[in-house]
Specification:
The protein is of the alpha/beta class. It is built from 42 helices and 15 strands. Residues 370-396 are annotated as: Disordered.
C-alpha cells in the first residue's frame, strides 16, 4: 500500500528499477511491482514524521548507529519494540552482568489450555544490541521517557498459534541436547526479539547463500550488511540516512518475498497495529511531538503496509483484553549460546558479533551508552551531565536518496590486517594443543595462508572470522577429533567465547535472596559459576543444620547438579552429623529465579509442588505416598503428611491396575517403620491405608495373576503387601479368609506367576514344603517343561519378596537344575536363566546369595565330600525309656558336676555357702529362701493387699512335704489375688 502522496526523492531509483524490470522480464509484470513496491516502502518509512530507527537483533552495526544517533538527536521519548509489561524490570539491568533475559512467567494459566503451562516468554539483551543502547540512554538521561509498545506476554500466547511456540521449544530442546549446557539457559521459553530479520522464503535464502559463497545466514549478514554499514570512519562509512534506507529496503524485500503463511503474517500485522496504536495513545496523552521521539523497531516491521502505520494512521484496531492468567516477571541469566539456539543463529555468531562491536567502537570512536553501575563495566568518576540540546540539523520534509548511491558504490576493500590474522593463527594452535591436538607452528602458518586463500576464493579482500574458522578446521582437525571440543568450537571460544550473564543479588526475587541469606554461613560465593565444595560439620557448628535443610530442599526442587550430596544422606528417621556438598547454584541461577515465581520461600514452593503432584490428574498411589514421605523428610510437617496420606486412600480405592504395587510396598514399609520408631501411635490414615490396601489387593489378586500386562514383580509386590501387613490388618479387623479365597481363585498360566502362586500357598499353609519340592522335581523330570524352567525360577526368586523363608527352597531348585540336567539341556537355557534373573530379580539376588553361602561349604576342598541338606536321609527320632535311676532331678546334677562355675557366680553375687555332702538329704530350698528373706515376701503381700503371719519354727510334716501349700496357707489373700489375675489373663 503506497502512502497518501508520492515524493520525488526516489524518482531516479524508480526509473532505474522500471528499466531493469523491463530488461529482465521483457515488460511490466510482477517483478516490476515488487521492485517498485520496495521503493514505495522505503519512501513511506522515510517520510514518516515519527523517526523510525530500524534495527536487526544483536547487530553491531545497528548498535553503533543507534549510539551515534542518540547522541545526535537526543530524543525525549524512546519507543522500543519490546513487551510493554516488561518495562518495570529494565531498571534492574544495572544490577546484572550482560547478557541476561527479561522473563515473563506464568505457572498457573487461566484462559489458556492447561497443557500449555507453564508459560514463559524471554527477551534476551546483550551489550552489542541496539535495544540496550536505547534502554541505557533513556534510563540514565534525565527527562527522557522509555516506553515499550509491543504486545504483552499474555498477547504473545493469545495471538501465536501453539504450533509456532512448540517449534520454538523444539529448537531450544535440540540446542540443549547438542552438548553445551549454556544453550539451555532459556529453558522452553518463547523468545521475542527486536528485528527478526531473516528471509522467510527458503529459495531466496538458499539463493543468497549460494551466490554469496557462505554457509549460513549469519555469515551472509556479516559479510554483506554488517561490513558495508559499519566499515570505515570517513566517506566510506554509512551515515544515518543511508543506514536507515538500507535497513528499510532489506526489511521490505524480506517482507514482500515472504511465503503465504496466513497465521504468521496476521500476527506480524497485528503487532504493527498494536505498536502504532500504543504510540498514538501515548503521544495523545502526554502531548509528545513526533519530532521529539524515536521509534526503535525491527526492520521487518519498519516497512509496514498496514492502515494503522504512522502517527496519522487509522484508529480502527482494537486491542483485546488480557486473560486472567497471573504473570510474574524477573531477570534470568542468558548466554550467547542460548541466544543462538533460541533464534536459530549459527553457533558462534553472537560471540563474533560481540567482538566486532568492540572493534567497531575503537574504529569509529563512538561512545556507547552503559547503565550507571552496570556490572562488568568500569565505573566513571565523573557525574553524567544533563542532556544537552540537540546538535543535529532539523530534518527537512523530503529525504534525500542515499540508497541509489549506496547500491552503486563498489564494495569497500578493507585491507588485510596481517597482525590480527597472525595472532588468530597462533592462538588457535595454542588452544588446539591444550585440547589434545598435535598442532605445531607449521599448522599456524597453514591456517594463516589457507584463510587468505579461502577469502580470495570467496571474493573477499580480508578473511572474515568465518573464513578463518574453516581454515582452522581444515588444517588442524584433519580427520579426527581427539579432544572434547572440536576446532570449530575452539575458534568460537577464541573469538570471544560464550559469555554467560549473571543476575545481581538486588535483582533476584525474594526467594532467591532468602536462599542466599540462609546459606551465608557456608562462606561460599554462591553467585559464582562452577562447582564449589561445601563441608558441613553439624556437631561443631550447630547453625549449619539450617543450611543442611535448605540444601536438601534445593536438591529436591532444582535440576540435577545444582546441589549434589557427596557425603551424608537424609532418610526417614535418620540425620547425618557431617555432610559434604557440590554446589553449582550460580550455574543454575535461572532455575532458582523461576522458583521465586512460585512462592516467597522454598518451603512454600515445596509444599505447593507436593500438593500439585498428589492432587494432579495423573497422580497414582505411589506418587501420593512419595509426597507424604517428602513432606515428612524435608518439611517435617505432620499436618501436610496426614492430609496427603488421607488423599492416598482415595487414590488407592480408584486404582484398577497394579502397576505401582512395588513402589507402594516400598514406601508403605518405610513409613510404617518410621512411625513405629518415632511416634507413640500410628497415624489413623496409615492404619486405614493398610486396612483398605489389604482388601484392595485381595480383590485384584486373581485378576493380576491372569493379566498378561501385570508383571511377576508387580504381583509379588501385592503378595508382599498382603503378607507383611497381615498382622496389622488382622488387628484392625480384616479377615484372613479373604486372602485365602483370593489365592484359591488365582489360576495363572505364566510359569513365573505359577511359581509365585505356589510360594503363596506355602505361606498360607495350603501347600507343604515337601509338596513344593515334589513339584519342582516333576518340572525337571518333564522334558517339555525344562525349557521354561528358568521362568519358574524367576517366579521363585520374586517370591522371596513376600515369602523370604523360601530362600533355601529356591537354592535347592537352582542346585537341582545344575546337578541333574545334562550339559546338552543346561547350556542352551543358561543364558536365559542369567538374563531373566538379572532383569527381573536383581534386587533379590543378595538374599539368594546369602542363603547359598550359608548352605554351601566355604572351601573348595570340602565340596567333593559335601552332601546337600536336601539329600541327607531323614533320621527317625530316638525314643528312650527313662529308668528309675534317671527319674530324679537331672538339672541339679549339673551343678555338683561343675562346682567351679557355681562358686564363681556366688562370689560375683557376694553369696557365701558350702556344698552339701553327697549323702545328705535335700532340703527345702524354696521354703528356706522365703524364711531367710521374710521382708521380700511381706512386701509382695503388702503390695497385693494381703494379711498373714509367719509360722513358728516347728513345721509339721505336712508342710515339710509341701512347702507351696504351706506358703498358700500362710497367705491365703495373696493366693486369691493371684487366682483373680490369672483368671483375667
Amino acid at each position: 500500500m503506497s502512502g497518501p502522496q508520492e515524493s520525488t526523492s526516489f524518482a531516479a531509483l524508480r526509473g532505474q528499477l522500471q528499466e531493469a524490470a523491463a530488461t529482465f522480464a521483457g515488460g511490466p509484470d510482477a517483478l516490476e511491482g515488487i521492485l517498485l513496491g520496495l521503493v514505495d516502502d522505503v519512501d513511506r518509512a522515510v517520510r514518516e514524521p515519527l523517526e523510525i530507527f530500524p534495527v536487526c537483533h544483536h547487530s553491531p552495526a545497528s548498535a553503533t548507529a543507534m549510539a551515534r544517533r542518540l547522541r545526535e538527536k537526543q530524543p525525549k521519548v524512546v519507543y522500543v519494540e519490546l513487551c510493554e509489561d516488561m518495562a518495570p524490570l529494565l531498571s534492574e539491568l544495572r544490577n546484572c552482568r550482560l547478557p541476561v533475559a527479561v522473563q515473563a512467567f506464568a505457572g498457573d494459566v487461566d484462559g489458556f489450555p492447561v497443557e500449555w503451562a507453564p508459560l514463559s516468554v524471554v527477551a534476551p539483551i546483550t551489550e552489542a544490541s541496539a535495544e540496550y543502547q536505547a534502554i541505557a540512554y533513556a534510563l540514565d538521561t534525565p527527562g527522557v521517557k522509555l516506553v515499550l509498545v509491543d504486545r504483552s506476554a499474555d498477547h504473545v500466547f493469545q495471538w501465536d498459534s501453539r504450533g509456532r511456540a512448540a517449534a520454538d521449544e523444539a529448537s531450544a530442546e535440540g540446542a540443549a541436547a547438542s552438548g553445551e549446557p549454556e544453550a539451555a539457559l532459556h529453558g522452553e521459553a518463547v523468545g521475542v526479539e527486536i528485528g527478526d530479520l531473516r528471509p522467510r522464503f527458503a529459495e531466496l535464502e538458499e539463493h543468497l547463500l549460494r551466490h554469496g559463497k557462505v554457509r549460513h545466514w549469519s555469515e551472509w549478514w556479516h559479510q554483506y550488511v554488517e561490513v558495508p554499514l559499519g566499515a570505515g570512519t570517513g566517506d566510506d562509512a554509512a551515515d544515518h540516512d543511508t543506514y536507515r534506507q538500507v535497513m528499510f529496503l532489506i526489511g521490505s524485500l524480506f517482507r514482500r518475498l515472504a511465503p503465504g503463511d496466513g497465521d504468521r503474517i496476521r500476527v506480524d500485522e497485528d503487532r504493527e497495529r498494536y505498536m502504532w496504536t500504543r504510540m498514538r495513545e501515548h503521544m495523545a496523552a502526554t502531548g509528545t511531538e513526533p519530532a521529539d521521539a524515536l521509534y526503535v523497531c525491527g526492520a521487518f516491521h519498519a516497512a509496514s503496509r498496514v492502515a494503522e502505520f504512522g502517527v496519522d494512521g487509522s484508529d480502527t484496531f482494537t486491542i483485546s483484553p488480557r486473560t486472567a492468567t497471573g504473570w510474574q516477571y524477573g531477570l534470568i541469566p542468558s548466554s550467547h549460546a542460548a541466544i543462538e539456539a533460541q533464534f536459530g543463529l549459527a553457533p558462534g555468531s553472537v560471540s563474533i558479533a560481540a567482538t566486532e562491536w568492540a572493534k567497531s567502537l575503537k574504529r569509529t570512536r563512538v561512545k556507547p551508552f552503559r547503565l550507571e553501575g552496570q556490572a562488568g563495566t568500569k565505573k566513571s568518576g565523573r557525574k553524567r551531565a544533563a542532556a544537552a540540546p540537540a546538535v543535529s540539523a532539523p530534518r527537512s520534509g523530503a529525504a534525500e536518496d542515499r540508497l541509489s548511491g549506496f547500491l552503486r558504490r563498489p564494495p569497500v576493500l578493507d585491507g588485510l590486517d596481517e597482525a590480527e590474522l597472525l595472532g588468530w593463527s597462533v592462538d588457535i594452535v595454542r588452544a588446539a594443543r591444550r585440547n589434545g591436538y598435535l598442532a605445531s607452528t607449521a599448522d599456524a602458518i597453514a591456517v594463516f595462508e589457507t584463510s587468505i586463500l579461502l577469502a580470495g576464493m570467496r571474493d573477499r579482500a580480508k578473511p572474515t572470522p568465518y573464513d578463518f574458522q574453516d581454515a582452522a578446521v581444515t588444517c588442524i582437525e584433519k580427520d579426527v577429533v581427539p579432544g572434547r571440543r572440536d576446532v570449530r568450537r575452539l575458534v568460537e571460544i577464541m573469538m570471544g567465547g560464550d559469555r554467560v550473564g549473571q543476575v545481581g543479588y538486588e535483582a533476584l526475587p525474594p526467594l532467591a535472596r532468602d536462599v542466599h541469606d540462609r546459606l551465608a554461613p557456608l562462606g561460599l560465593k554462591l553467585q559464582q559459576r562452577g562447582v564449589q565444595r561445601a563441608l558441613l560439620d553439624m556437631v561443631s557448628r550447630p547453625e549449619l543444620r539450617a543450611c543442611s535443610d535448605v540444601l536438601w530442599m534445593l536438591r529436591r526442587l532444582m535440576p540435577h547438579g545444582a546441589a549434589r550430596p557427596i557425603m551424608g544422606e537424609r532418610r526417614l528417621g535418620e540425620r547425618s552429623i557431617q555432610e559434604s556438598w557440590d554446589l553449582a547454584i550460580g550455574t543454575h541461577q535461572r532455575a532458582l529465579i523461576e522458583l521465586g515465581y512460585e512462592g516467597v520461600s522454598i518451603e512454600q514452593v515445596l509444599e505447593q509442588r507436593l500438593r500439585r503432584d498428589a492432587y494432579g490428574p495423573r497422580a497414582t498411589t505411589a506418587t501420593v505416598l512419595a509426597a507424604v514421605e517428602d513432606a515428612t523428610l524435608y518439611l517435617g510437617s505432620r499436618r501436610l503428611a496426614d492430609e496427603l496420606g488421607t488423599h492416598a486412600l482415595k487414590v488407592l480405592a480408584t486404582e484398577r491396575s497394579v502397576d505401582g504395587a512395588p513402589e507402594v510396598l516400598r514406601r508403605v514399609r518405610a513409613l510404617l517403620a518410621y512411625y513405629r520408631t518415632s511416634e507413640p501411635a500410628l497415624p489413623s490414615w496409615i492404619e486405614s491405608f493398610v486396612k483398605t490396601g489389604y482388601a484392595h489387593y485381595c480383590t485384584l489378586l486373581p485378576t493380576a495373576f491372569r493379566d498378561e500386562d501385570a508383571t511377576v514383580g508387580q504381583v509379588a509386590a501385592m503378595l508382599g503387601f498382603l503378607f507383611s501387613m497381615e498382622s496389622l490388618a488382622l488387628s484392625l479387623g480384616c479377615d484372613r479368609a479373604q486372602l485365602e479365597l483370593a489365592v484359591a481363585q488365582s489360576h495363572p498360566e505364566e510359569p513365573s506367576k505359577t511359581a509365585l502362586l505356589w510360594a503363596a500357598q506355602v505361606q498360607l499353609g495350603t501347600l507343604s514344603r515337601a509338596q513344593l519340592r515334589e513339584r519342582c522335581d516333576a518340572l525337571l523330570g518333564n522334558p517339555l517343561v525344562v525349557p521354561a524352567y528358568p521362568r519358574y525360577l524367576s517366579g521363585f526368586v520374586h517370591a522371596l519378596e513376600p515369602v523370604p523363608g523360601l530362600a533355601d527352597v529356591v537354592v535347592e531348585a537352582v542346585s537341582n537344575a545344575f546337578g541333574r540336567l545334562p550339559d546338552a539341556v543346561l547350556l542352551p537355557w543358561l543364558p536365559l536363566l542369567i538374563t531373566t534373573m538379572r532383569s527381573g530379580a536383581a534386587e533379590l539376588a543378595p538374599l539368594l546369595i546369602r542363603e547359598a553361602g550359608r548352605i554351601f561349604p566355604g572351601r573348595l576342598a570340602a565340596l567333593d565330600a559335601w552332601v546337600p541338606p536336601w539329600r541327607t536321609p531323614a533320621v527317625p527320632p530316638v525314643v528312650r525309656r527313662v529308668g528309675a535311676e534317671e527319674s530324679g532331678p537331672r538339672g541339679a546334677a549339673l551343678l555338683p558336676a561343675h562346682p567351679a562355675a557355681c562358686d564363681a557366680v556366688a562370689e560375683l553375687l557376694g553369696c557365701a555357702g558350702e556344698w552339701a555332702r553327697p549323702g545328705a538329704p535335700a532340703g527345702l530350698s524354696g521354703a528356706a529362701l522365703l524364711a531367710a528373706h521374710p521382708a521380700a515376701c511381706d512386701a509382695v503381700a503388702g503390695l497385693l493387699g494381703c494379711d498373714g503371719e509367719w509360722a513358728t519354727e516347728a513345721v509339721s510334716p505336712t508342710v515339710a512335704t509341701a512347702p507351696g501349700a504351706a506358703l498358700t496357707a500362710r497367705h491365703p489373700a495373696a493366693a486369691k489375688a493371684w487366682e483373680s489375675l490369672l483368671a483375667r489373663a
